[in-house]
């Protein structure tokens, strides 16, 4: 009998979960106390959650999708986005009923950040059930599930799962970033002329034209620039050293919350286009290996 590749990934995920628990125990030995135990519980639950959501995406990928638009004709949403988000939100609600949740499709429906304890909750989950919806709807195999956990305003845990390649990216603040249990590190590329960069284009006409102008400035200086269609995976690729930098304007918190933590924990640098501090609500984002950051800031902010 032919088994779907994700069945074998499920077996390997047990090893990843044990690795997550081992990292949690190491952190607990250093820091101790209830906080480290809570972090271990969160990470283990998070890893299993994104894996199950990814299985849902793959299972429904070949279906004929009900596609509608949101803020523009370029901004697509399918019934699968909504089904996976419902699964994620319901699962979190059952396990952590006092936690707040910021989810992409719920946000677009006007409900905003949902929580039993309201926005004052010290824990908040930031969810993108399907990052790369346009790719997904067209059958292009580059999409993922992205979930981050914020504690008292700072993202402390993140997981991005690419179910097509069976790649699970996990980061914990202060503990590093990992791909299927292997520690990640950004690239060592020092010159922008040797760099492979990634960008993305906003859904708005104004934002797309703005980034087209920025691309015209960066493209002659870089070795190559790619547009892949999933900001969460783009950031993970910077963290893994597969790309040297990524920039995009008009991003939302759910697009980047997990991915920015990946880059930071892999030794990279994340700022706005001017080199200033990055905030989830800032919109514009520049993430690099650190070595080429100043050169890109001079191009994007100039």
- How much of the polypeptide forms β-strand, as a percent range? 15-25%
Helix content: 40-55%
Architecture per CATH nomenclature, i.e. the level-2 architecture of the largest domain: 2-Layer Sandwich
Compute the number of strand runs.
Answer: 15
> For the CA atoms, what is the radius of gyration?
19 Å
Compute the number of structural domains.
2
Task: Round the mean pLDDT to the nearest integer and report it.
Answer: 85
Q: Specify the CATH class of the largest domain.
A: Alpha Beta
Instruction: Please trace the helix and strand order, writing H or E for each element.
Output: HHEEHEHEEHEEEEEEHEHEHEEH
Shape: globular
Number of helices: 9
Flag low-confidence runs.
1-5, 27-34, 108-112, 114-118
- Major beta sheet, strand line-up: 4-3-5-6-7-8-9-10
For this structure, the CATH topology of the largest domain is Fructose-1,6-Bisphosphatase, Chain A, domain 1
The CATH homologous superfamily of the largest domain: Fructose-1,6-Bisphosphatase, subunit A, domain 1
